[in-house]
Write a structure and sequence with these properties.
This protein has 381 residues and is mostly beta strands. Helix content is 2%, strand content 54%. It folds into three domains: 167 residues, Immunoglobulin-like, CATH 2.60.40.1260; 100 residues, Sandwich (Immunoglobulin-like); 81 residues, Immunoglobulin-like. The N terminus is likely disordered.
Length: 381
Amino acid sequence: MEKIAFTKVFITYLFILRSLWGSDIFINEIDYDDPSGDNEEFVEICALAGTYNNVSLYFINGSNGSSYDNVTFGNITISDENSGYGFYILVTTDNNTDGSSIYDHNTGVSSIQNGAPDGIYLKVDGTIVDGISYEDTGDPLNSDMEQTNISGETSADKSIGRSGLDGSSWILQDRSPGLANNVSGSNDQALPVELLKWYGRATNTYIQLNWETASEIDNLGFLIYKGVAGNPLTLWQDYRSNPSLNGQGSTSFHTKYTLLDRSVFPDQTYAYLLSDVDIHGIETRHDTIKVKLNFKKQFTVFSNPTNPEIQMVLNLDANSYIQIDIYNILGHHVESIVQGQMQSSEYSFGWDGSKVSSGFYMVTLRIDGHLTSSHKITILK
């Protein structure tokens, strides 16, 4: 699979975190123990975009449960960086050695302790909305602090961050201030679509494309690229103009999709490429498949001007809704030969033209509402 765009990735678990704690703001990542000077430590807050009043952080000593430092930021504003959420990076006074503009909110705290089990909790308007105990499994406040169960974070390029699709567990990860954490526990972000099947099936007159997904995350919809095999592919179908290609957003349910391509020619092989687009505009391309349209005459009309008995043969290779009609030369409907759902098979029909006037008539075939064949016949009396 190929990623053809890259933006900051927002992970679905942020929405779930909001419901877990009943708060729009929470601690998302901590770097508390850099070697040789503790010079790049930070606390990352993630929140739904908006303004929060009287925000403060309290740093807790694991040995006695007291606060060894705290800082109040007053009112802070979180901008919408990804899908309604943003980040607020709070650094120690020993930080900002790399000059990064992301480190623009200084805590006034020289460094973050790393004794077991130290902790940090977040207050908004005097109410604790989140609390994290790290370096051990204890709770220095004997409260409802989350426990990371990580023995230590001592590498210069590592931090601890929320993980799992519900964000309820913590992992040792690569530092990512200002970005969504890695929810899978590895360096790979979850793909927006888990594709189970992607294949095509040729009939006499069209190609049917089918794909199935096991799950979807923030999926806006699908794009399909098409071309004659061996030639460049171009965008053919787009979810923005074809509602049948809309994705399911986020779902863990098995979903099936089908699309018919009637703009095809007999004995020609076509190539199709499927891709999905998530809410950040990231397009993920899947495999290219090739399908050859088999030619077999689908609808044959046997007529003789001197014989009013008209015979028709229909070869139907897929269950379809069939309409066969007779029209006069003025386009007026004369008679319906058949109209209804039919199974895949070969059928024969007859029409007695002796009950109409001499002249030219048209026999039309519609499959699933699409006009696929028309034949001109002559009736002489």
